[in-house]
Amino acid sequence: MRSPQERNTRLENMSWRIWNLARKIQIEGEEASRSSKKRLEREKARRDAAADLSEDLSDGEKGEHINESSIHAESTRGHMPRIGSTDAIDVWANQHKDKKLYIVLVSIHGLIRGENMELGRDSDTGGQVKYVVELARALGETPGVYRVDLLTRQISAPDVDWSYGEPTEMLSPRNSENLGDDMGESSGAYIVRIPFGPREKYIPKEQLWPHIQEFVDGALVHIMQMSKVLGEQVGNGQPVWPVVIHGHYADAGDSAALLSGALNVPMVFTGHSLGRDKLEQLLKQGRQTRDEVNATYKIMRRIEAEELCLDASEIVITSTRQEIDKQWGLYNGFDVIMERKLRARIKRGVSCYGREMPRMIPIPPGMEFSHIVPHDVDLDSEEANEVGSDSPDPPVWADIMRFFSNPRKPMILALARPDPKKNITTLVKAFGEHHELRNLANLVCHG
């Protein structure tokens, strides 16, 4: 039987536990109330600002009724015209073919090299790696562009290939016909690897944040040296500074914003994926608290960097219109309606009272077709079989065909690693529920 002192001690401990629990609930409630109040204040401020700007707009230019086609013809800050089609790219290239432009791309996480990319090796080495390498290669072949540098991290770790430790790698052009006769000693597209962070360790992107400033210091040294070299080659002795710095993902965007400010060079940003949207999706799953998500993904540091990118960028490239409306719309630095009204005012030459927002341009990711051999769809089945009999099917073909009741139907091919965030289940569900689409095509998911 417990003594009165033991009972009193247990009762006191229980009382403290109850008090701490009640206090924790109270603090969480107060924090939620403060967050809600701040959100309401931001929304009110946005509505008030939009209302102020609306006063000077004609009815045809307000809100959702702004003529997108006319507004897209102008840049938010007047530095860069929009290039929206192949014809426009050809026109732009012809107009600038005599220029010697220097472009800098930044993508600092993952394993980046020009050939034999290890796509899918880890979560940091995926589609973005392919995207930035092919973008650099294509820009390097564009008339008027003299040099493109894709800046990334130099990695000399024993568990990765030695090629990731090479300071510089030239990207071979896909089409030599696009190369001009005035190619110089330093012209073309290059991967430039800047040493920063642990010298002999390959680390995930979440661990790169403390080393961003070290990368920026090294990148500044390279850009200044290269600008002087290009000045001696094509600038009549004057440094040739980058015409734009293009950051990819939040970590490189943070770096690009610092470089842009230091060099007074326009910045472009591509998010690839966004922190606020990811945070919302993870919290909806209910498997982790906000603090646990932040500890795992450094999500608040990422969101802070993305807000900085909004403030520093001239243009933000997105893959879809949904990314603009539903994802960037979650950020303090961007408001869809406000951005449209600002563009309308700029188009009319009306003052924006110092308010600025980056121009959002959706550019769906493309595909590199140099390795694709198209089949003649005009041939009937017998002729197609005769024509195609000389070329052997790839080994994987038999494994795929055995699942189809009608293998002659065209194929919808989804390429992605088997990761929940790639949302393959939604694609399969949408395809399975669409009777007409199932009759027209076969779906293949390859990871």
Automatic annotation (TrEMBL):
Ranges of Basic and acidic residues composition bias in the record: 29-50
MF terms (GO), sorted A to Z: glycosyltransferase activity
Keywords: Glycosyltransferase, Transferase
Keyword Transferase attributed: yes
Ranges for region Disordered: 29-80
Sucrose synthase first GT-B domain location: 102-334
InterPro entries, per database record: SPS (IPR044161), Sucrose_synth_GT-B1 (IPR000368)
Keyword Glycosyltransferase: yes
Top-rank taxon, per record: Eukaryota
Cross-referenced Pfam families: GT-B_Sucrose_synth
PANTHER family: SUCROSE-PHOSPHATE SYNTHASE 1, SUCROSE-PHOSPHATE SYNTHASE 3-RELATED
Protein name: Sucrose synthase first GT-B domain-containing protein
Organism: Triticum turgidum subsp. durum
